[in-house]
Design a protein that fits this description.
Number of strands: 0
Distance between the termini: 31 Å
Largest sheet: none
Shape: globular
Helix content: 40-55%
Number of helices: 3
Length: 81
């Protein structure tokens, strides 16, 4: 097991999921892409956070998108088109 993994029970680790700002930006960006649904990790506290984020509004500004893109270098997407 990799000691850096914060959630060892998951195959893929959520990206800095403990960072509430990043998780908010990530979820709101995902939902802004016109998808039908986004599923947070199966950890109860993250479901609650996702619901709170969505209830706060799903809009994301261009400035927030730019901030989110700073986290992307070096990340490998799970899915690509």
């Amino acid at each position: 097991m990799n000691p850096a993994r914060t959630l060892p029970e998951y195959t893929e680790q959520p990206v800095q999921i403990e960072d509430e700002t990043l998780s908010s930006l990530s979820l709101r960006y995902t939902l802004s892409l016109g998808i039908t649904a986004a599923i947070p990790p199966g950890e109860y506290k993250f479901w609650t956070r996702a619901i709170n984020i969505v209830q706060g509004g799903m809009e994301i500004s261009d400035t927030e998108k730019d901030e989110l893109m700073k986290y992307l270098p070096g990340m490998n997407p799970l899915f690509t088109a």
